[in-house]
Amino acid sequence: MAGIVVKFVFIAAFMIPIQADLGPLLNELKVRKDLQFILIDLLNGLVRKDGVTCLVIITDAVYLNVFEGTYFKRTFAVPIVMIVVEEYEDLLSPNYDTLEALRQARTDGCNMYTIIMANGFQVTGLLRFGDRHRILDTRAKYIILHDVRLFHSSLHYIWKRIVNVVFLKYHRRVIGKAKNKAWFDLSTVPFPNPIKGIFISRRVDTWSGQFHYNRDLFADKTGNLNGEILNVVYFDHLPSVVVMKLNGTNKVGGVEIEILNTLAKKMNFVHNLYEPMDSYIHKWGQKNNNGSYSGLLGEVVSGKADLALGNLQYTPYHLKLLDLSNPYTSQCWTFLTPEALSDNSWKTLILPFNLYMWIAVLLVLLVTGSIFYGLANYYINLLNYKPLNNKYKANEKNYNYAKPVGLYLFGEITNSILYTYGMLLVVSLPKLPTGWSIRLLTGWYWLYCILLVVSYRASMTAILANPAPRVTIDTLKELVNSKIACGGWGLQTKRFFEGSLDEMGQKISERFENVENPEKAAEKIAKGVYAYYDSSDYLKYLSVKRKISMNNSISIDVTQDKGDRNLHIMSDCVVNIPISIGFHKNSPLKPLADVYIQRIIEVGLVEKWLSDVMYKIQSMDTKEEEIKALINLKKLYCAFLALAIGYTLSFLCLLSEFVHWNFIVKKDPSFDKYAIDIYYMNKKNKL
């Protein structure tokens, strides 16, 4: 066999001088040579199958000589991370060198661990530490020396997570003076069969110079679970899990239930669905004072449940406690807010155009009226300089009659603006003005007026025909400005807003409250004083449920608060969160389950199941019937408002004229009520 090329060797311990003689006991049993040969055969067999990307060797001073030059010369070249630990080192809390070596191995993607150590307690400490902090890749292949201390009941949970493992048990028979050749018994954990009380390993092969059965020592144990029963905990949260009461029993459905049924069929297992105790109180669960967890998370963290269903968000908080499958969908998480009808009927006259359009119309009115006034004065001044015919000089009456008509319409600036405004209201001029420039301008201004009036009327018709618009909160900024309280479930949600880099998110966190009951939160929202945070699908269900309950209450003559508002889902998403199925920490089921979930997503089943669940909610959404094109008195408040403004302004003008007549005109010494025409003629001459 060709000599091995070691790509890298990392020794993470202080090496002490080790004598070649390992002691009379080891020399008698010749464990070192026999163990070396079987490790060489195991590694070469896995390398031939392209199953080893990087090898981690963890050993101690006792077995260090197993990994001498012969081992590396007779094995294929693979990257190696080698860690030698002291006999007194506590691997429940490894030293810095050991810890960094393990982290580097995990980072480099090493998928095979060879743990050859004499002290079984050190091995158990390493496995506990590696599982708790995810330092060891529990889905890698493991070769470990057989030690009864590894199979204590307190370690049974480890062998539910590390299933690709081979235990090497050394045998040496001595019959009389004849000595049989040493051999090794190769066994593994009995996955998927559960460990009940006593750990009984399952033999996979034997080795005495060569493998006896030549079986695949690391065959996939998750592809066929042989009808094993898996405990699945669930929490009712639409659309992932939907619980319906039928004849006193719970019928569970939803998107994640459909995914679970598909996984059970493909991986050949039976699921035992159950709901955690007091799930409506603890819900997903939170950390207790004693360090344990309640609710759904508590069932998974404690190892009672193999899978967890309940709209679990793919967040760092959940990833610390359990394994999450590849996300099967992404949900919009936002707020359920109150909405209110906007009584803007009084300003219907100005609604057809926005502010800038009204400014443009006003500017065009003033500019066009001024142009009409300027042109009219130009023609009047021009006529004053024209020589008049003798017959018109002789007869002043004929002269006045013969002057070009229509110029008086725009001869004064006030009249010019009024008549220009009248054309804007599609009121015809009493006289056609003289002068081609004024006539041409009038014609084109009429075209402008027709287009503007048609647009205004069409927009006005749509406004009067449609129902009154609703005032809603659709952005975080609007929610912050509304000053209403906000809430959601769980302390982790509040921490999410506290850790937000957005200023609006920080302000939301300041008034964010923990909500135990979404139905009570919906009642507070209807009062217009609250906003509730959850996924948009669940908020849709909550709003429909509230509307149905209100309709039922009205049908049985239960008095409802007339001030209750409709519930509105904020259109802007605070965040789009991936949703996954949960597995217990370092679960061996996750890799294959991810493959099947990806296939389910690609063929569109998740989208179809989600549509089925939400269709039922949409069908129950009994919207209020809105009668189109119905004009009522409320919608015409604007007309009465315009009339009231006209009455008011006319009255004020009349009042001002009355005051001017009685306190200014009559008090003038030259005023004579019997010769008023002479009084005004004198006033005009003075001007």
TrEMBL record:
What is a GO molecular function of this protein? ligand-gated monoatomic ion channel activity
Q: How does it sit in the membrane?
A: Multi-pass membrane protein
Where does it mainly reside?
membrane
Alphabetical GO CC annotations of the entry are: plasma membrane
Question: Per UniProt, which keywords does this protein have?
Answer: Cell membrane, Glycoprotein, Ion channel, Ion transport, Ligand-gated ion channel, Membrane, Receptor, Signal, Transmembrane, Transmembrane helix, Transport
Which cellular compartments is it found in?
Cell membrane
SMART domains per record: Lig_chan-Glu_bd
* Signal peptide feature range: 1-20
**A single BP term in Gene Ontology:** detection of stimulus involved in sensory perception
All residue ranges annotated as the Ionotropic glutamate receptor L-glutamate and glycine-binding domain in the record: 240-302
Q: Which residues cross the membrane?
A: 355-380, 401-424, 444-465, 636-661
Q: Name one Pfam family in it.
A: Lig_chan-Glu_bd
Per the record, the similarity remark reads:
Belongs to the glutamate-gated ion channel (TC 1.A.10.1) family.
Indicate what this protein is called per its UniProt record.
Answer: Glutamate receptor ionotropic, kainate glr-3
Q: Highest lineage ranks of the organism?
A: Eukaryota, Metazoa, Ecdysozoa, Arthropoda, Hexapoda
